[in-house]
Every structure is written in structure tokens, then in C-alpha cells.
């Protein structure tokens, strides 16, 4: 009897372990803002159009990182070794502190009205990019920063919120990035600078409006 019980427990552990491993890879950060002064400042800075007769009661940010995101590749502001390519050279390649998103460029903006249990699966594509004040090629930048500066990553994430009666919710979804900066040299002469953005996840903004 003891042997059968031990075998059964072993099978349960083996079945559970892969599930735990999958969920352990996904990192999320969440922040909720309810302070009226801070909400007002955000609304003014973003020039948000508030529905007539309503005010913003709460703002919730949820950052969801890609499962294969490498959190410790570089320390913030750490210099990466210069990269030479033909006559081009990248120096002072740095990963900037903090994650970046672009508030004026949501991938999705959904509205839902209470009472309701809103649930939506967002399947979004987040694309890398780079820009420079010089004619440096993408291949030079890619070799320095270590990722495809024009590649995309697909990500699927379910989002759910319960909306009480008399309230509205606006959900915006953004691409989230790491930002890298660099200086560009050609034939050992400074030509200019540039920046590159690596996709690392999705940012969800949830605005709750009340009368």
C-alpha cells in the first residue's frame, strides 16, 4: 500500500512540475493609481478625452514580459564592447534603465461598459526598430545590440476585468521595449548617434471611468 501511494505521489509531482516551470517564466508588474491629483496630471499630460459626465476613478498598469525575456543580459547603463564593421564602429552602446512604451501609439484601444465581465484575448505583434542620425546599416546595429532591429515577436495574453454598473473601462495595449543608445563612428570619426528598441512584452493600461 505504501509503495502504491509513493508511486501515485511521484506521478502527481511529475505532472505538476512542467506547469510550474511554464508559469515561472512569465514575469508581470502591476501598478494601480487612485490618487486624484496623480490621475489628473496623467490625464492632462496625455491629453485624454474624458467622456462627458464621467471622471477617471482609477488607472491600472500591467506589464507582461515575453516568456523568453532575458532580464539580466546587461546591467542598466553598462557599456557594451565597441563593434567594428567595415569602416563603421559603434561605441558607448548602452541599455538604458527602465522599460519603454509609446503612449501615443496603442496597438489596441477597447471600451467596455458595466455591468459586465469583460474578457478578451489579445494576440499582438511587437516590432523592434532603430533610428540613427547617420547612414549606419541595420546589420551593424544588430551585431552591437544583439537582436534583430526589424524583427517582430508575437504574443498572446488574456485580459479580464469585472465592470460594475454605471462605469466604463478603456483598455489600451502597447508594445513594451528595452531602449539601447549608441554613438556611431566611421573611419574613427564621430558621425552621430542612434537608438534601438528591443521588444520585451506588452503593457496594458486600464482606465476606469465613473459618474
Task: Walk me through this protein's architecture.
The protein is of the alpha+beta class and 211 residues long. The chain has 3 helices and 11 strands. Strand 4 and strand 5 (88-95) form a beta hairpin. 20% of the residues lie in helices and 50% in strands. Residues 2-25 and 71-80 have low confidence and may be disordered. The strands form 2 sheets. Strands 1, 2, 3, 4, 5, 6, 8, 10 and 11 form a 9-stranded antiparallel beta sheet that branches.
Which labels suit this protein?
single chain; 211 residues; alpha+beta; nine-stranded antiparallel β-sheet; 50% strand; disordered N terminus
A few lines on this structure:
With 211 residues, the protein is an alpha+beta fold. The chain has three helices and eleven strands; from the N terminus they run αβαβββββββαβββ.
Number of helices: 3
Determine the N-to-C terminus distance: 64 Å
Helical fraction: 10-25%
Spatial shape: elongated
- Taking Cα atoms only, what radius of gyration do you get, to the nearest Å? 23 Å
Q: Strand content of the residues, in percent? A: over 45%
The stretches of 5 or more residues where confidence is low (pLDDT under 50) are 2-25, 71-80
Structural class by SSE content: alpha+beta
Q: Give a count of the beta strands, DSSP E runs of length 2 or more.
A: 11
Average pLDDT metric: 82
Order of helices and strands: HEHEEEEEEEHEEE
Major sheet attributes: 9 strands, antiparallel
